[in-house]
From TrEMBL:
This is DNA processing protein. NCBIfam families: dprA (TIGR00732). Gene3D superfamilies: 3.40.50.450. InterPro entries: DprA, DrpA_SLOG. It comes from the Bacteria. Residues 135-332 form the Smf/DprA SLOG domain. It comes from Geodermatophilus amargosae. GO terms for biological process: DNA-mediated transformation. Pfam families: DNA_processg_A. PANTHER family: PROTEIN SMF.
Length: 416
């Protein structure tokens, strides 16, 4: 039996509900599959129109040439092509699927800020530029078994420079592992440098991690990470992309996909970033969505930390400095629950001393013992007061009686 044509599936979708049992009907899913190939993601005008008329009606209008001129211009010659069924079958062969807003596993809560931004962003140039616009995807191609919404519910983006330093890679791997150990999903772009270090850190902790690609989920880019991506899928992680299977990683697509990394997660951690970097762009997308922007500081002499420090310096940026996973979780987690423990400072016997005790201790010589009267003269107190605190200082091993006077106790020997 021949498979139904796209037009037949669209006709069936118009006659019934959009979803059955929490799963989009085939015709609607096929319409969204067609749109992911026909139109490059990131266009506010096209998304608004599609959201208004519905994906099935939008697909029919674009194929018939009756869509608004802006929409027809964005699709161009692709309107005459139909690879939707082939894309869905190709995805199925590599263990992938198309997740659409009508599915129960669609991460509606995480992506809601993108929806709000697309409706309220206006027509300013920044919102019309596909590489910077904040627009929800029409669908997401997902490779891996776990549901998308549950996987990204408690997730953090960890991004940074491709030309990273050993310091940056160490920090990113530690963050990935520590976040994973605490039940958080690490989301990144799978690139060289900081991205891959964060993914590997999460894998080392036995945790799920998500790679947001700028190409089809059946392709590995960079190719050297092919084995890593397969390991991520086998370990309960996901590969996610707006582009259909087989799509090539064109340069502009990396800038477009940054909003998905920022949108799926509760916050974005920038580990290292040069003066001009995609990591900075991802952080600014997160800021535009009202999500947390977190920054790991680096040496002021490092070119790979210039972008991090600029994010911290921006008065309107609201970026927060973080140094470990606990501080990240405190920023993005539940209010009053996911709190970072206070920084532990080394304790010394001097910490609990009174002002008088510190003064008498500072008056004690290192070698020769002196009388209480001499200590009182140096400390600026009464001799009786000095005699009252000296026994407590002796019990704390801070001073010792030499037989003729008081002096500082020698430091304990190593290994004692």
């Amino acid at each position: 039996m021949n498979a139904p044509t796209l037009d037949e599936d669209l006709e069936d979708a118009l006659a019934g509900p959009a979803a059955v049992g929490g799963v989009a009907v085939p015709g609607l899913r096929r319409a969204r599959a067609w749109l992911t190939r026909a139109a490059e993601p990131g266009s506010v005008d096209l998304w608004r129109w599609t959201d208004d008329v519905g994906p099935v009606a939008a697909t029919r209008a674009l194929r018939a040439g009756t869509a608004p001129e802006k929409a027809r211009t964005l699709v161009g010659a692709r309107a005459e092509e139909d690879a939707s069924l082939a894309d869905l079958r190709r995805a199925e062969r590599c263990g992938a699927r198309l997740v659409v807003p009508e599915d129960d596993e669609w991460p509606a809560l995480a992506l809601h800020p993108l929806t709000v931004a697309a409706h309220t962003g206006g027509d300013e140039p920044a919102q019309q530029d596909r590489t910077t616009a904040l627009v929800p995807p029409v669908g997401l191609w997902v490779r891996g078994d776990p549901p998308l919404d549950g996987t990204v519910d408690r997730s953090v983006a960890v991004v940074g420079a491709r030309a990273s330093t050993a310091y940056g890679e160490h920090v990113a791997a530690d963050l990935g592992a520590q976040l994973g150990e605490r039940g958080w999903t690490v989301v990144s772009g799978g690139a060289y440098g900081i991205d891959v270090a964060a993914h590997r850190g999460a894998l080392a902790a036995g945790a799920a991690t998500v790679v947001v690609l700028a190409c089809g989920v059946d392709r590995a880019y960079p190719a050297a990470h092919s084995a890593l991506f397969q390991r991520i899928v086998d370990s309960g992680g996901l590969l996610v992309s707006e582009w259909p299977p087989g799509a090539a990683p064109h340069r502009h697509r990396f800038l477009v996909r940054n909003r998905i990394i920022a949108g799926l997660t509760r916050g974005t951690v920038v580990v290292e970033a040069a003066a001009r970097s995609g990591a900075q762009a991802t952080a600014r997308r997160a800021r535009g969505l009202g999500k947390q922007v977190l920054v790991v500081p680096g040496p002021v002499t490092s070119a790979m930390s210039v972008g991090c420090h600029e994010l911290l310096r921006e008065p309107e940026g609201g970026a927060r400095l973080v140094g470990n996973a606990a501080q990240v979780i405190e920023a993005v987690g539940a209010l009053g629950e996911d709190l970072a423990a206070p920084v532990q400072r080394p304790a010394t016997p001097r910490d609990g001393l009174s002002d008088l005790g510190r003064r008498v201790l500072d008056a004690c010589p290192v070698r020769t013992g002196v009388s209480a009267e001499r200590l009182a003269a140096v400390a600026g107190c009464d001799p009786l007061e000095a005699m009252r605190v000296l026994p407590a200082l002796e019990l704390a091993d801070l001073v010792q009686w030499t037989g003729t006077g008081w002096r500082l106790a020698p430091p304990p020997r190593k290994g004692a």
